[in-house]
Amino acid sequence: MPIQFFNNIKKAISNLDPEEARRHAERPIRLFLYADSERAYRQMEEFFAPPELSESRRAQLQHRIYRATEGFLPAERHDLEIYYEDSPHDILAPSNQVFAFRPDRPIQTIHQVLHHRRDLAIPLAVHIQPFREEVSQRIIKKVAKENALFALATALPDIVPFLSLPWAIGEFASDTALLTANQFRMAFLLAAANDRDIGYREQKAEVVSIMMGAFGWRALARELAGKIPLGGGLIPKAAIAYAGTRVVGLSLERLYRIGHAYTREERRLAYEDALQRGRTFAASLLDGIRAKNPAARIR
């Protein structure tokens, strides 16, 4: 690998700290359940603490999930209250702390909580099993979109100031380096959400795999972007950034969830699907950028 690539990676990750993901994972979280019958309490407890959990995991949840009747009261901002609703007429408007549980649509509670309390996404995924898959999918989707946006930004300098990647501070190193660094960040967040060890040393195999894949994505993106005139190559370039990031994320999620990553064939199939998603997202993104800023320069 060219030494310049490593220098660019080093520059890109200078403000990327695995400790951020660790801090998210270590945030305290408690759920307080409210119901008017033993049956209702059990339904909620069996959803948030599935029967297949190990004994040690279940013991940990004794300090995370409480029945309101046990005398404990929510006191902190990280405490969430979940109320049982067994009728569609019992409509509880979600807030930053209070949410409804419908036994016929329990996943709706997951979506509502994550919509209103994004700050608690990772600690919820770490401790409350039903949140884990949804949080992981949201991390992958968010980072894939960020990388598609950055791929456009490298060709549309006028939109660079509008990027909101908190770790990308200062002069940009290179598009490949920053896309790769953001995949490192995704790997840290996915490891945190899945209660795995976090860090460059702890995730050495994942980091090496991401770096090795970076050259393939870069070569393909540049080849496609260079063949299509007048900025038309921006869509495939951004789509490849999206697809490559999504496939990396999905493979890592599988690794952390069941112990092995995608096979070569699974990666190929996932990439085909992700590329189509990426094209659609990139096209709408580019249309939006041009509509808001007709003077945006394309190179």
Describe the fold and architecture:
The protein is of the alpha/beta class and 299 residues long. It folds into two domains: 3-24 and 129-292, no CATH class; 30-125, no CATH class. Helix content is 59%, strand content 6%. Strands 2-1-3-4 form a four-stranded parallel beta sheet, with helices on one face. α6 runs antiparallel to α7 and α9 runs antiparallel to α10. The longest helix is centred in the last third of the chain and has 29 residues, at 264-292. The radius of gyration is 22 Å and the shape is globular. It starts with a helix and ends in a 7-residue tail after the last helix.
Shape: globular
| Terminus-to-terminus distance | 27 Å
Number of helices: 11
Strand order of the largest sheet: 2-1-3-4
User: Order of helices and strands, N to C?
Assistant: HHEHHEEEHHHHHHH
Number of strands: 4
Main sheet overview:
4 strands, parallel
Alpha-beta content class? alpha/beta
Beta-strand share of residues: 5-15%
Radius of gyration from the CA trace?
A: 22 Å
Helix content: 55-70%
Low-confidence stretches: 166-172
Average pLDDT, all residues: 82
Total number of distinct structural domains:
2
Features of this protein?
single chain; 299 residues; alpha/beta; 2 domains; 6% strand
SSE blueprint:
Blueprint (H helix, E strand, L loop, with lengths): L2 H10 L5 H8 L4 E5 L3 H11 L6 H7 L3 E3 L11 E6 L13 E4 L4 H11 L4 H7 L1 H25 L21 H19 L10 H24 L6 H25 L5 H29 L7
Parallel strand pairs: 1-2, 1-3, 3-4
